[in-house]
Known about the structure:
By secondary structure, the protein is of the alpha+beta class.
Amino acid sequence: MFKISEFSKLSQVSAKTLRYYDQIDLLKPTHTDADTGYRYYTADQLFQLNRILAFKDLGFTLNQIVQLMDDHVPVEQIRGMFRLKHAEIQTLLENEQARLKRIEERLHQVEKEGGIETGQEVVLKQVEAQRIVCLRQRSSIQQIPQLFDQLEDDLEKCFSLSFPQIVLWHGCEECEEEIDLEVGYRLQQQMSSHSHLCIRLLPETSMMATLVHRCHPASPCSASADLGFWIEQNGFRIKEDQPRRELFLHPDKLDANYYIAEVQIPVEKVKGQSDAH
């Protein structure tokens, strides 16, 4: 048997904690000397203590753990609890990583307010009509990759898909946290109708203000604000009743999680304004 000081070293749990576990009947020593009051533990109790610590990691209170230890929960059930906790923490980490990316993008926007990055150039161009197959939902910017996954699951049975990926941003006055989004691909061939997908023609646009930039599909970026600033400064206005378009042209060579994308906003010249420079 081991004295409490020795058992503490073996288990890496303080003697103070072990005494408290004894007091609440969670882990009692195998033997307590009646004369000295010294507590003694056996090696088998290291396994009991390990279970106690495992239950603590899973978020159970000490009172709950006392009951669980009395019920002799089988190893397979504990394993299942840990799998669930692992999945929960993994989801939390992914959500926090996505949040961190959004914070970094917002900080970047604050730092460069009012200016377009070096190497970026706004281009006015005519965009021809194009037929697309699309999926439209009220969702969030974070769900854009999942919306494309959903669309691709339906389309892979019909034909192969290729870039660019298209996102249409519709106005939605009654929406709060959600955004009216449409994701799609250009159609290069005929396709039969589908229950929840739509096939439609994006109209030809005679004047589209465009800006190529690098972005992550599920994070905000400053390209639209940069383009809006340019539109205002150069005597244009956004045409009504046409969604803003964003084309994800291809993955970034340095980081496949990012894309080279082009924001497209249909515009018209404000009467009385000189040509853009």
